[in-house]
Amino acid sequence: MIYRRLLDIDTLRHNTMTVQLPVCTTAGNENLKQPSLDLLLRNLPGAVYRCKNDLEWTMEFLSDEIESITGYPAGAFTAEPRLAYASLIHPEDVEKVRGAIDAAIAEEASFQVVYRLTDSRNEIRWIWEQGCLSNSQIPDGQVIEGYMADITRMRTAEIFLQERASYLERARDAIVVMEMDSRITYWNKGAEKLYGWSESDAVGKLFCDFICATVPSFAHAREATARSGEWAGELTHRRHDGIEVDVETSWTLLAADESLGIPQKILMISADICERKEHLARIHKLAFFDALTELPNRVHFLEQLRHALAASSRSSQFGSLLFCDLDNFKLVNDSQGHATGDMLLQAVAKRLRSCVRETDMVARLGGDEFVVLLYPSEQESSSAAAQAEAVASKIVKAMSGPINAGDKILRSSASIGISIFDGKDSTTESVLLESDMAMYEAKTAGRSTFRFHDPAIQAQWSARAVLEDDLLRALNFNEFVLHYQPQIEGKDTVVGAEALLRWRLPNGKVVYPNEFIKAAEETHLIVEIGSWVLRTACSQLAAWQGNPATAMLTLSVNVSARQFTTSGFVESLEEIFKETGVNPAFLKLELTENLLIHDFQKTADVMGHLKKRGICFSLDDFGTGYSSLAYLRKLPIDQLKIDHSFMRDVLTNQGDASIVRSIIGLAVNLGLQVIAEGVETTGQRDFLSNSGCNFYQGFLYNHALTADLFTEYANRYH
Ligand code: C2E
Ligand code: MG
Ligand code: MG
What protein residues have CB closer than 5 angstroms to ion ligand 3? Predict the structure, then answer.
């Protein structure tokens, strides 16, 4: 409105009028000289105009400032031949200007418009113009009066800033700015795309509340940024749809600007790396896994073998490698076709995996060659060999079963070579070569079997295999026999016996349990042998129970850990009780401490069950195992049996004497019976008796006797 008053047509014509500017209203101060319109127009940072609202915007008046805007003097527009002002306006902006003027006229309001014009040097200028329809109109049309200013510099700066801002907006990465309390102040389009939250949803919220999947890692990143000025790493963020996304992100601390009142902030630039991770995983799979069987391939296996050797060298533990080769794969491939061959390999891979623990590695080297790597976990090479043997037998057995390949049923088998390694003497090459050579030995030995590379280990395992065959024969041909060693109370009262197993070979030679029980324990044979022992012992006990002279004798029977924890043990005992008609209250099972440690819960369950049937429990070889006083309290144990190794030197070795006295004291305190085995001399017996132990077993009284001899002996001493 101020321009409207300024540009009153009459005063403009005379160009001499003094105007009343708001700043200069001097009511009450008559002496103050008021500025002339001329001066005012000259000092305005733009041009004042009056023009016809025709197509050319024919100028009737223009202040001199127009020259600094357009490069043309005012006269160029107002005097003939006139320069049409409209011709300077950028063709793309003409419509916009005209539209703004027409709208203002229609609404009887003023207009404001920004447009471009070309100056006398042919350069583009940005013009801001404001005007309105004049009160005094001319007969041949409308007149517009207004003011225009050159805003080129401002506009350029604005464009520059917009351009810069658009870079951030167009960035693919999510760019987020937050204050130190994680309140979001900037959120670009990339952030909208990555997280699914719009700018208006996000700004003002706490980043750590609605984006961070793991607050501690966020806190760590924020702390590091505050401390060092920047931080970069990977974080897990949560999207709008709740899905977690892995991002690679770099954070920069933005210093506070107190003059502008801007606090310290953090700029975060984050990129979604899920796809990259998936790619990497896919590439990793391609590079390290066999496409057909999905098992680790040769490269992956060699890498793991190297790790295993390094670990072995650090821990001094032994591991093993099993090299498995299918025995008839070529035949299947040639006769049944490659598709069937592939199916066979896939089935073999599955079977191999099912034979090993989660931590062991099964890999396919190529063709029909597979390897099984058992990581170093054994202190002795012999235990590593035992472990490898167990896995190898399992594989040989598993492979010999029929395999379904599509609609066909195939038969296959595997030959396995085993190398036991340690990190000091072995290399990847030597381990592979040794197991490969041993595999050929297995082939030569008739296939569907395994061989150790080390001849000493192989000899041992061959002997073990022969022993196993012999034990099986012994069971089938009744070569086992039980002998009974008397158990004495006080001076010479026979109160019971321990059943000890003997193996009478066809040639009459007797083999003692120390030579075969361990081998039997390492196979399932101990379960069958143990079952035979229990049946025989219970028949004998039942026979004694039928005779008043021996009716009160107890019979101790050794039970191996594997036998005791085999499922169905309780049921098989019940069966034996029924068969033999024995009163189980006189039966005592001898367990070793190691069994209790191994599978405590299972052992406790079985013991609890049998205890209800009246069976007693004795802890054999007490003092030699991993004794834990806790299980003595928790389990229904009746008797501790002092191991005979303490007895040998009990009279000369203070240490042994103290141990024996402690065991006796422990038993007394816990209310348990205590018996000493291996008592050979009266001196030992007197020591025990003086220490509070009144039950003895040993050569002082008798060796283990045949059933007949024992019965005779018991009749004599009962
Ligand atoms: P164990 O249960 O500790 O049996 C005691 C062993 O000490 C027996 O050896 C016995 O003959 C021997 N012995 C007895 N008195 C003396 C003595 O005064 N001095 C010496 N030096 N030794 C004595 P055996 O019969 O050779 O049995 C050895 C181990 O075999 C037994 O140790 C037991 O652990 C195991 N065993 C024996 N029979 C069976 C069985 O039927 N089943 C199971 N699972 N293991 C059995
Ligand atoms: Mg025993
Ligand atoms: Mg013993």
Answer: 620-621
Give residue 643 CA to ligand 3 midpoint distance, Å: 5
CA of 507 to the centre of ligand 1 (A): 23
377-395 pLDDT, tens digit per residue, is: 999 988 999 999 999 999 9
Spatial distance between the Cα atoms of 449 and 392, rounded to a whole number of angstroms: 8
pLDDT for residue 7 is more than 90: no
Distance from residue 381's CA to the centre of ligand 3 (Å): 27
User: What is the percent of the chain with per-residue pLDDT over 90, rounded to a whole number?
Assistant: 72
Ligand 1, atom 42: closest residue by C-alpha? 558
What is the CA(670)–ligand 3 centre distance, in A?
20
533 CB under 6 A from ligand 1?
A: yes
Give bridge partners of residue 296 from the DSSP assignment.
289
Q: Which ligand is nearest to the CA of 528?
A: 1
Residue ranges with strand state E in 102-193: 111-118, 124-133, 143-150, 174-179, 184-187
Strand partners, 246: 236
Whether 166 shows a pLDDT value over 90: the answer reads no
Q: What is the pLDDT of residue 146?
A: 94
Helix (H, G, I), strand (E, B) or coil at 231: strand
Distance in Å, CA 556 to ligand 2 centroid = 7
- pLDDT by residue (tens digit) across 274-309? 988 899 989 989 899 999 999 999 999 999 999 999
Note whether 674 and 667 are within 8 A (CB).
Answer: yes
Residue whose CB lies within 8 A of the most ligand 1 atoms, among 498, 500, 587, for a mutation test: 500
pLDDT digits (tens, 9 = 90+) for 645-661: 999 999 999 999 999 99
Region 415-438 average pLDDT: 93
Ligand 1 and 304: CB distance under 6 A? no
The residue whose CB lies within 8 Å of the most ligand 1 atoms, and thus the one to mutate among 538, 566, 594, 644, is 644
| CA nearest ligand 1 atom 8, residue | 500
DSSP 42-92: HHSSEEEEEEESSTT--EEEE-TTHHHHHSS-HHHHHSSSPPPHHHHB-HH
Closest ligand 1 atom to 521 CA: 44
Contact 413, 326 (CB under 8 A): yes
Strands 318-326 and 184-187: unpaired
CA angle 216, 221, 223 (to 5 degrees): 90
Residue 35: the pLDDT is 59
**78 neighbors 62 (Cβ within 8 angstroms):** yes
Pair of tokens at residue 388: 């490898």
pLDDT of residue 34: 56
Looking at 108-253, list the stretches that DSSP marks H as alpha helix, in order from N- to C-terminal side: 152-170, 189-195, 199-202, 207-210, 215-228
- The mean pLDDT value for 577-583 works out to 96
pLDDT of residue 13: 35
Does the CB atom of residue 129 touch ligand 1 within 6 A?
no
DSSP structure string for 300-327? HHHHHHHHHHHHHHHHT-EEEEEEEEES
Beta bridge partners of 325: 369, 415
